[in-house]
Design a protein that fits this description.
Layout: H1 7-19, H2 33-40, E1 55-59, H3 63-81, H4 86-94, E2 105-112, H5 129-147, E3 151-155, H6 160-167, E4 173-182, H7 192-195
Antiparallel strand pairs: 1-2, 2-4, 3-4
Helix pairs in contact: 2-5, 3-6
Length: 210
């Protein structure tokens, strides 16, 4: 392979991206460890600013840690609901915004802002590029999981300081996302938020020029 990919490959890649969804409804069937390991290998292929590889992942397995994270979400979600009123509040209350209670695999993703790896290249004027590198790596993971038939749900409705305390992580680690992984209850190319009437996807990218 020289970097020139066939039309058939490009079609399959586009299909993979269409079928990548933010999954919140999971079956409780266990995830094979070999499937998870293959998907996590995507992190070793992901780009990062200055080759800093600042991602740090915690696997949340204990019942106590999972309960603390779920309680964190529940409290934050209740506060978020109070920020809406009328029809928008009614719609929000019907949304399922976390698969934390059902997903068999939980990962907490962080960015290590103090990493010496990369020697600060590319991050001196924009240190946030380290966090963006972690986001890019998670996108690689998302697609790799989809190729295994698995789904990922990214939970962001969380109190970061509380999560740091509950998981006892270093102060230099910046929370990026709580990732629920498992087998989707069903598959759909339409985002769940669009199906629920919360928002619709733009039909095309609007590219401005200067």
């Amino acid at each position: 392979m020289t970097g020139q990919f066939s039309p058939a490959f490009r079609e399959e890649l586009a299909a993979l991206m269409r079928w990548r969804r933010d999954v919140r409804r999971f079956r409780t069937d266990p995830v094979p460890e070999d499937s998870l390991a293959r998907a996590l290998h995507a992190f070793t292929l992901a780009p990062s600013v200055g080759l800093s590889e600042p991602w740090r992942l915690l696997r949340i397995d204990s019942a106590s840690a999972r309960a603390a994270c779920l309680a964190n979400f529940s409290d934050c979600n209740a506060r978020a609901l109070n920020g809406f009123d009328g029809d928008r509040a009614a719609t929000y209350s019907r949304l399922k915004l976390s698969g934390m209670a059902e997903a068999p695999v939980h990962l907490a993703a962080f960015c290590d802002d103090s990493t010496p790896k990369g020697h600060g290249l590319g991050a001196a004027t924009m240190p946030e590029t380290r966090a963006w590198s972690v986001v890019g790596a998670i996108t690689h993971l998302w697609l790799a999981l989809r190729a295994e038939g698995l789904g990922l749900g990214w939970v962001s409705i969380l109190d970061q300081d509380r999560l740091h305390r509950d998981l006892d992580v270093p102060d230099s680690w910046r929370f990026i996302g709580y990732l629920c992984i498992g087998w989707p209850e069903k598959e759909d190319t339409v985002p769940e938020l669009e199906r629920a009437g919360w928002e619709s996807r733009a039909p095309a990218l609007h590219l401005e020029t200067r």
